[in-house]
Amino acid sequence: MAQQTEHISMNRTGVQMSPLGTGAMLDSDDAPIRGAPGDARALLHARKAYIAEADGIGSIPVPGTPVGAVGMGQRMLQGDRPRILLDKLGERLSFERTSTRLYDALLAKCDVIPDGPSGMTRMHIEDIRRDEARHFLLLKETIETLGGDPTSQTPSADVIGVESLGLVQVMHDPRTSLAQSLHALLTAELADGVGWETLVALANDAGQEDLVTSFAQALDDERRHLSLIHGWYHEAIGLMPVPGMLPPGGSAGLPPDATTAPTSTPDVTTPPAGADGMPGADI
Predict the structure, then answer these.
(1) Rg of the Cα trace of the chain?
(2) Cα(225)–Cα(209) distance, integer angstroms
(3) Which CATH code for domain 83-236?
């Protein structure tokens, strides 16, 4: 069983490694004293002032085509909330694009780091990456169908981009192990599942039955991804899967040592560079 193996060395980050220096610091006249005058109230007041004066993050772009503008207006007159749906579609679009790149980073680590989880094959990872790219294109086409512009950054897309920065940094750090990378992906898949649940609910609220079906399929894909990543992560740190979890590397209908990647859409191929509707960038 492949496990995360952290070596023990002279880690000097704790105070126990420098008892003399710690004692000198605590005995210093400049050392902070518990209960000393002063607190963080001034900083709190400054933060509240900034919050009170700040504008919101971005805005929902006005549809750039006459057809899109008319369609949005009609849906608003009917009581729908197309602005919220478009905002959340933009959020998921941004995250799926990032997720695709996270799995690119995992593929690079798997090519270099030996002895990963027994059932985590390159084909399994490529299959998940292909799902993320397919979800990206689904969202792009959905936004266009609703009259939106998939190249515009909505407020929620802006926020989730900032939220995802830490995940990107962990995955692309050459020092992180497979176990640490899988933990980052576990965080991503948990957030992704909630995001698709939100889209299913919003599409259902708007009476968009076709979208409900498509989004529910994407949600099923993400739940499968979560089960796989969870199992691989547990194996990577030397644990057995929790009850009800898929075996490490396994999936519905496939044993952990299967050589065929699990997929419900084997004919889906990753779009070539520039085919994602965003000029000058690939997925």
Answers:
(1) 24
(2) 24
(3) 1.20.1260.10
